[in-house]
User: Fold these one by one.
Assistant:
Number 1:
Amino acid sequence: MADPPRRHVGQYVSSGDWSDYWTTGISRAEGGKIRVRGYPIEELIEHLGYNEAAFLLLRGELPDDRETALFDLALRSGMDQQFISSAACAARFTASAFPDSPVPALASGILASGSVTGSPQEPAEMLVEAAGWGLPDEEAASRAVDTWLERRGAVPGLGHPMHKQAEPRAVTVRRIAIEKSGWGTHGKLLDAIEVELARRKGRLIPINLAGALGALLTDLGFEPLVIGGLGALSYGMALLAHIAEEVRDGVPLRIIPDALGAHYDGPEDRPLPDERKRRKR
C-alpha cells in the first residue's frame, strides 16, 4: 500500500483549516481516562511487561509470545558498553562535567549512536532495499555489496574492529533468533551478504550486532527509522550504569592528557606579525 501524501504547513496556511494539523494514533487522555492504542492504561500497567508495552506503542498491536521473546532479545543485546564505545565515553564526559543529573549525560550518549558507532538503522535500510529488488538471495547479496561499496566504501552490519572472526553478541542473537523462528527473509539475506563479501575480500568480515539487530527487527516488522531509535535505546541502561558510576567513582571534569593520547601537530611557536598587531590605546 502506498504511503499517504506527506502533509506540509503551506496547505494549512492556504486553506485556513487546521483541524487535523496535530493528530496521533498513539494515546489520548481525558477526564479520569487514559487510553494507549485504545487500551485502558490501568490494564496495560497491570498485565503487560515493559517490552510488551513498548512493542504495542511502536507497532500499534500487542505482540504474541514469539514476538515478545524476539523483541526482548533485541533490546537486551546491547548491554555491554565499554570505554571503546563512543556512546559510553560521551556519556561519561558529560557526567564528569555535569554530575547534577543523569539526563544530559544520557542524552549525550544516545546522540553518539550512529552509523559509525553501530546503529542498526543503516543495515536495516540496506536489507529492506535489497529485499525490495525481488531477486534470489545470492543475486541480491551481490548487488547489495556492489551498491554499498560504491555508496560509502563499506557494507553496513558487517565487521568489527576487535572481533575479526565472530562477533559474540551477533552470533548469539542470530542463534536464538533462528531457534525462535525470527531469522527470516532479511536475516537470510544478511547471511548471503556476509558470504558474498567474504568471497570478494578473501577473508571473513563477520556480521556484527548492528547487522544482526537490523535483520532481526526488520523481520519483526519494524521500519528502519524505528530500528535506529531502538538501537540507541538498547544502549540506554548500560549508559545509565556508566553515568552513575562516573558520578560516584569517576574524576570530575575528565580531560585527555598527553599521556592518554592527546597530541598537538599544529605549527611551532610563532609571533604575530608586526603589521597585524593593533596599536596600544
Number 2:
Amino acid sequence: MPAALPTAVAIGPFTFYLYGLGLAITAWVSVSYLERRLKARGLAVGRWPRFATAVILSGLLGARAAHVATNWSYYHDHIGSLVALWQGGLASFGGLALAVPTGIVLARRYWPDTPPLQFTDVIVVGLAAGWALGRVLGPQFMVAGGGHETTQWFGLSYAGQTGRRVPVPLIQGAEDALLWLGLLWTERRGPRPGIVTGWALTIWGVVRTIDEHWLLGEQGHTGSVAVQIAGLIVSALGVAILIQARRRATHLRNSPL
C-alpha cells in the first residue's frame, strides 16, 4: 500500500500541520482577492480587514461547533480534541450558518449604501475561488480527508483511513474552480444584482449534496443526511433569489421611463 499523504512537516523543533497551513494560505489569498474586487467596483475598503477578520473567525467557530455536534459520540470521550483544528474537522454548513449572518450585519453597517445582493455578487465570486483553493490545500492533507474506499487508479491513501480513497478534496476543488469560472462569465455579462449570487447558491448547494451522498456520506449517518438537506436548502434559496432578481429585471424593463 502506498504511503498516506502527509498531514504535517517537521522543521527543526517545529511541527507545521499542513491542514492549518493550507487554510491560512487560502484565507490570505481570498481576503486579498476580495479586497481587489471591492476596489474595482468603487467600494471603500478601509473597514475590509475588520470585516474579513470577523467573518473568518465566526466561520471557523461555526464550522468547528457543527463538526463537534455531529460527532459528539467521539468528542465526549476525547475532550482534549475539541480544539485540535490541525487534525481537520470543520463543517462547511456550520461555518456558513454563523459567517453569513455576521457578514450581512457588518455589510449593512460598513457599506450601508450598497444593495445587499450587489455586495454578495462581489463576495460570492471570491468565495468560490477561495473554496476551490481551500479544498486542495486544506482537507487534502488532513486526517481522514478522503471519501469512500475505492480500487480505482485515482484512489489515494489518507492518514487515518484504510485502503485507497476517492480524493474528494481534489474533486471538490475542481468543482469549485469551475463554479468560479462560471460566475466570472456570468458577472461579465452584466446581470442584474442577485443573479451571480443566485446561481452560486443553486449550483454549489446541489453539487455539495451530490458529493455528500455519493462520495462522502455513510448510509444512515445523521450528519451526512443533515449535510444533504442543508445543501438542498441552500439551492432552494439560490433559486428564490434568481426568481426574484429576474422579476425585478422584468419589472424595470416594463416600467415607463
Number 3:
Amino acid sequence: MLREFRCDLHIHTCLSPCADLEMSPKAIVEKSLKEKLDIIAICDHNSSENVVYAMKAAAGKPLVVLPGMEVTTREEVHLIALFDRLEYVKKLQAKVYNRLPGVNDERIFGCQAVVNELDEVEGFNDHLLIGATIFSIEEAVAVIHELGGLAVASHIDREGFGIISHLGFIPPDLKLDALEVSAAMGITEARREFAELYRMPFIESSDAHFIRDVGKGVTRMCLGEGSVKELKMAFRKEQGRCIVEGSHA
C-alpha cells in the first residue's frame, strides 16, 4: 500500500570535517524522529564509515536510514549517492578512497570522527574527506549506477560545489537520477528558476551539518516502502510512486 513519506536525503555526521561534532549518528536519529521524518540518508563527504552506526541507532525505530555518500568530483562538484544496502556504499567508499589524494590536517580542515550508535568514538578518519576525488562527474555517476545506486546532483541552487555554478549547465547526456535543491529555494521555486530542467525530478534536502538543521529540508514522496528502489520509481513516476510537489512539507 502506498503512503506519504517525509524524506531528508542529505545529512552529514561528525565524520564530515565541516559538520558539527554534535552530529553523532544517535543524535541525528533522535532529531529525525522528533521532526517526524520517515526516511533519511547519511551522506558524508567521500566516506560512509558512520552510516552503519546510524542504521544501528535507528534499529527498531520508525525511521529508515539509507546508506549514502556525497562524492566530490575532480570538477569540485558534489554528487549524492544513495543505496539500499550497506555493502554497496562500502564498495563505493573503497573506490573513492583509492581516488582521493591527500591526508587530513585536523587543525586546518576539522575533525573527522567515527562515532558509534552509543556516542562512543571509534576512531578518526585520516583521508582528506574535504578534498576532491579524481573521478570526473561522468565517471562518478557511472560508478554509482554500476553499484546499483542513485546519483543526485547536490544543491544545484548554490554556488559552492553545485554543478550549475561550476559548469554553467548540466550536461544533457549526464545520467543523473534527480536534482537536489536547498531548503532556501525549495522545489516550487526551483521549478521556476530552472524551468529548462522541467523533465528532471527535484528533491529538497537539509544538507544538515548541525543538529538544528536536520529536517529543515524535506521531500514528500508517495512510496510503498522506504527504499532506493521505491525512490527510483518515484523519480520516474512509476506505479503511483511520485514526489509530492506544490505544498509545504
